[in-house]
Structures are given as C-alpha cells and as structure tokens.
C-alpha cells in the first residue's frame, strides 16, 4: 500500500540517466502506462538533443518527463506519473522543471501533441498555459486524434 502522505518538498527532481531507466525498466508498462517503451526511452536518452528528468520520492522513481530540443524549440515527448501517485502534484512539479530547463536553454516555444481523449493531460497542459493550435485526425493507432498545443516563453508556472 502506498503512503501518499507527502508534500512537494519530499519530491526531488533530477536528470534521468541510463541507470534510472534500468531501474524503471520492469515497472514501465505496469506502473506508468504503456506510453513509452524501454527501447524508445533509451534511444532518447542517448540522443544529444533530448533532456529527460525524473521525480523521486524516498529514492523511488514516481514520475518522469522528457523534452526533444530542436534549435530554439522544444517538444514535450512525455510526462508520466506512477499510477498510484497521480493527482498529488507530481506532474506539476515535473512541468515546472521542464519550464525552468526551457528558460535556461533560451527555448522560445514548447510544442506537444496529446490524445484528444486524455482529459487529465489536457487539463495539466492548459493549467500551464498551453493553447490549442491544431488537430490531427486519426493520429493514434486506435483512431483517436491528436490535439496540438503550444506555449511561448517565458515559461513561468
Ligand atoms: C497527466 C499526468 C502526468 C498528470 O500528473 P499528476 O501528478 O496527476 O498531475 P497533478 O497532480 O500535478 O495535477 C496537475 C493538473 O493536471 C490536471 N489533472 C491531473 N489529474 C487529474 C484528474 N484526475 N482529474 C482532472 N484533472 C486532472 C488538473 O488540471 C491538475 O490541476 P488541479 O490540481 O489544479 O486540478 C498523469 O495523469 C499521468 O501520468 N497520466 C498518464 C500519462 C499521460 O497521459 N501523460 C501525458 C501524455 S505523455
């Protein structure tokens, strides 16, 4: 049983490395959703134009998020919180850290795509100032469309 008596100050956010990914490996699908698999994450971590972070609570990884960096633009590739820890502010902490990274790197715009049915993620992005700028029909394997969202600098939560 998870102890969800934690506050924001108990969560530490740091860069994600290959060692972290090995720790996550067996947990990825069962505890975090089948959004990203190990091989894709590994190639992202090894690529020079990505930036990944993890959230830890008592040394356990409870969330991660990643950006792809293209010139002065960034794309949010994923932001995922461990199922049993959701809706307790960890996604917001990860988003704040992504914003701070983008500010440090002088990124001028952050883009993302989100499944039209993913209400929680859409809420999170809107809360952080992202605006809908487009829609791609039948974008996902199940026929769902993708909402395209964008946020310009500066990236203050
Ligand atoms: C989207 C996700 C990362 C949010 O993380 P989280 O830790 O639950 O988010 P927070 O607790 O910080 O909530 C931030 C905001 O997200 C939205 N949100 C998150 N969970 C929600 C829920 N169950 N119901 C409604 N809104 C929700 C709200 O706008 C919330 O702000 P509020 O507290 O003012 O209502 C998490 O739900 C998740 O991991 N989902 C699966 C992965 C995913 O879909 N990622 C996005 C695409 S890669």
If classified by CATH, what would the architecture be? Answer: 3-Layer(aba) Sandwich
The neighbouring-strand order within the major sheet is: 1-2-3-4-5-7-6
Tell me the helix content.
Answer: 25-40%
The helix-strand sequence is EHHHEEEHEHEE
| Separation, N- and C-terminal Cα atoms | 32 Å
Which ligands, by name, code or SMILES, are bound?
Answer: coenzyme A
Report low-confidence residues grouped into runs of 5 or more: none
Work out the count of structural domains: 1
Shape: globular
Mean pLDDT figure: 93
What percent strand?
25-35%
Can you walk me through this structure?
The protein is an alpha+beta fold. It has a single domain (8-152), classed as Gcn5-related N-acetyltransferase (GNAT) (Aminopeptidase), CATH 3.40.630.30. It is 29% helix and 34% strand. It has helices at residues 18-24, 28-32, 38-46, 90-104, 119-127; strands spanning 11-15, 50-57, 60-70, 73-81, 109-115, 131-136, 146-152. Strand 4 (73-81), helix 4 and strand 5 (109-115) form a beta-alpha-beta unit. The longest helix has 15 residues, at 90-104. The model has no long low-confidence stretch (mean pLDDT 93). The site of coenzyme A (COA) has 20 residues, from strand 4, helix 4 and helix 5.
């Amino acid at each position: 049983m998870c102890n969800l008596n934690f506050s924001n100050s108990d969560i530490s956010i740091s860069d994600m490395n290959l060692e972290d990914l090995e720790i996550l490996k067996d947990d990825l699908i069962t505890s975090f959703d089948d959004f990203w698999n190990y091989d894709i994450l590994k190639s992202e971590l090894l690529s020079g134009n990505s930036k990944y972070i993890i959230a830890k609570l008592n040394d356990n990884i409870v969330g991660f998020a990643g950006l792809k960096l293209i010139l002065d633009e960034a794309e949010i590739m994923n932001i995922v919180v461990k199922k049993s820890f959701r809706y307790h502010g960890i996604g917001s902490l990860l988003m704040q850290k992504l914003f701070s990274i983008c500010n440090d790197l002088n990124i001028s715009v952050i883009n993302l795509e989100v499944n039209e049915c993913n209400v929680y993620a859409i809420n999170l992005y809107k809360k952080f100032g992202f605006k809908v700028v487009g829609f791609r029909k039948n974008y996902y394997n199940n026929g769902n469309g993708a909402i395209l969202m964008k946020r310009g600098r500066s990236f203050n939560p």
